[in-house]
Amino acid sequence: MTNVVEIIGGGIGGLAAAIALRRAGRRVTVRERDAALPATGTALALWPAALRALDAIGVGDDVRRTGVRQRSGAFLRPDGSRIAAVDLDRLHRRTGDAVFLLSRPALLAVLHRAAADAGAQLRAGEPVDGEPDADLVVAADGVFSRTRERLFGPAYRARSSGVTAWRGTLDGLATDTFAEVWGRGVKFGVTPHEGGRTNWFASAPGVFDAGDDVARLRAMFAGWAPPVRTVLAALDGSAVLRHEVFVTPALPSFTRGRVALIGDAAHAMPPDLGRGACEAIVDAVALAGHMRSAKTIGEALHGYDRERRPATQRLAGMAGAAARLTRVRHALPVRDRLLRTAMLAGPPG
């Protein structure tokens, strides 16, 4: 059975895969093109399914201790009135766990330390050109994955969703509550962030050129009630991150030959469900589980694809539907009813 594993990409999915595959007894090398871990980044939501996967690789408690538990959540209108609540108590009863918020740098630091402790070879500043010589290659090279394009062709390149997102963090505005405010085709959100900070994000249809993002956001969300007004008043332009949102077409398989794709390389989706990092972690642990239990690499990769492709493509469809709903500019009462109906089933765990 497979022994030598090369992982392309040392992000969240790649490091989680390194830990999981080392625990499954494999020799693992991770090659990451960046020379160092990022020093800045906004908060990621870690849902119960991801926390269970992190428990399986021995870092779940570290993540819970480092992160901030989300205590409540709501979708609001720009005047502050509520459209729908997020029933986190129901989620806890159903799954036995909560949602924790943790910044990307903090999560990467936990995973990097655990991967090193597990004995994975972590090689920073080493971009990969072509397919490494290994028994198994794990492509965790992100939304613009060269591996995906090499295996499946240019038809599966990442595509712009036609949406721009802004995000950042603020000191001195601690919160344990998720609030997402929906206007006419635009939205603004606030979540907890470790260290007593607040994480914020916004999105709007269109691709925006570089400019004064603070002025742009203040004009776009002028007159909105707190927490949006509070965040906008405190914004510093140097702390605003802006990026065009890209997604990937649904792949016919997450594997080909001896290569398995995980995370955004396999299924980059709109951020509207907050599940991208979660699914990368679950992918990694699922792949290692199949590597542990299967008799051949072909059987393991088939099992991984059969488990993870339908689940993640279903979530990508849900994220796409949520993104389209946020871009509605007319018939807002109908939109709000649809959102309330969607919340009746509770958020996916």
From TrEMBL:
InterPro entries referenced in this protein's UniProt entry, alphabetically: FAD-bd (IPR002938), FAD-dep_Monooxygenase_BioMet (IPR050493), FAD/NAD-bd_sf (IPR036188)
This protein's record includes keyword Oxidoreductase: yes
A single MF term (Gene Ontology): FAD binding
Record-linked Pfam families: FAD_binding_3
Transmembrane segments: none
UniProt key word rRNA processing: no
Protein name according to UniProt: 2-polyprenyl-6-methoxyphenol hydroxylase-like FAD-dependent oxidoreductase
